[in-house]
Amino acid sequence: MNDPIIQLTPLRSAVCSDAPIQLDVLVSARAPQPEVHFVRQALNLALVLDRSGSMASERKMAHARDAAIFAVEQLLPTDRVSVTVFDSNVVTIVPSTLATDKAAIIAKLRQVVPGSTTALHAGWKAGTQQVLEHLQQGGMNRVLLLSDGLANEGVSDPNTIVTEVQGLASRGVSTTTLGVGDDYNEDLMEAMARGGQGNYYFIDDPVQLTDIFQTELHDLMALGGWRVSLGVEPAQGVRVAEVLNDLEALPTGRWRLPNLIVGMPVTSVVRLAVPPRPGHALVAAFRVAWDPPKGGPRRELRAQLDLPAVSKANWDLLDQAPEVVEAVGLLMSARARREAAFAAERGDYAESFGYIGAALACTAALPQSPACLEDIEAIARLQGDLAEGKLARLAKRAKQQYWGRGHGKKLS
């Protein structure tokens, strides 16, 4: 197995000897490459689909069925899958089973039709029970929850639901949420994904569902590590001003990172407040730790940042690392879009317009890399929502873009 790596890239290649500075550091961790004859860990997957009455509109139910069928088709015979559907009632149409008879599972999925109201919590909980009955210690146990509506049947208190999601995550069952259309509670769905250590997607067009399921399955199948955390140990006098990504702060003083996916680096920007430093010295040490997908002892990468000290006049003349400039600019653009979402929720068209303009300015100032071009396209969709007066859709889309950029996911 190849050695894992952690790479530290400071904005400038020195600190100051005669003035305090703010220094952004790009931290990149890459999972170890597997052996040539790598056999991936078996999946334990629960598909939980909303079939409430609103799923009939815009052919949502048809696309949800197609996406679920696509997911089943990608599984190996060693994987487990269950299918639970919910409206006001919850029915597990496929109890957890090995994916050996895919045709029978798909036949059950093709029979799903829209019903009445939305028992979101009960549907999610039924899915988790299917996973728990066959829990794979150290394996990949996940619930994929898809809904287009509000939790209006049974338990609907967000705090209660999120607490349960967090509890299941601590037992090794993660939750990914997919919100479809303009009517679901994006704050609840995002909080469930965050607490559930999964992913959150806003699906504005049901046609996207198959692509999103493909992305989610790829991440699960190429998992290199989970329960990933970032620790920063500043040198004396140095402090962490903030972490620019949208990361959860852990009780240990570290931050939760997205899962390590083989071949895909996990990147974060740490902003350090650095006092005057006398000569070449340690600035900070960094630690990325994770649990291997096949179980075993927790692993970690460590690296330290040592930089020379120069005068402030010379420091100002140093080149800025372009990859750090881009990472910071894209994160600042995402933050502006989150503020645009909050303004849209207040019904403040002018303020939302201003924040979207600020987001575009942040991205447009950067060299036009693929990531920047993706950002510009994403912002254009927000501008379209604003022009059409679709503030609810703008808020959902902007929040998902903030989540996606902060977690290294594709923007929608």
Quick overview of this protein structure:
The chain is α/β, with parallel strands linked by helices. It is built from eleven helices and 18 strands.
Which sheet architecture does the biggest sheet show?
6 strands, mixed
What string, H for helix and E for strand, traces the elements in order? EEEEHEEHHEHEHEHEEEEEEEEEHHHHH
Q: How many strand units?
A: 18
Number of helices, where a helix is a run of at least 4 consecutive DSSP H or I residues? 11
Rg on CA atoms, Å: 23 Å
Span of the ends, CA to CA: 35 Å
- Average pLDDT reading: 90
Amount of helix: 25-40%
Strand content: 25-35%
Shape: globular
For the biggest β-sheet, the strand order reads: 6-5-4-7-8-9
What does this structure look like?
The protein is α/β, with parallel strands linked by helices and 412 residues long. The protein has helices at 60-74, 102-110, 120-132, 158-170, 186-195, 209-221, 312-315, 322-345, 349-364, 370-387, 391-406; strands at residues 5-10, 15-16, 21-30, 43-50, 80-86, 90-98, 140-147, 173-180, 200-203, 223-234, 239-243, 248-249, 255-257, 260-261, 266-274, 281-291, 299-307, 309-310. A six-stranded mixed β-sheet has the order 6-5-4-7-8-9, with helices on both faces. Strands 10, 12, 13, 14, 16 and 17 form a six-stranded antiparallel β-sheet that branches. A four-stranded antiparallel β-sheet has the order 1-3-15-11, covered by helices on one side. α4 (158-170) links the parallel β7 (140-147) and β8 (173-180). The longest helix has 24 residues, at 322-345. The model has no long low-confidence stretch (mean pLDDT 90).
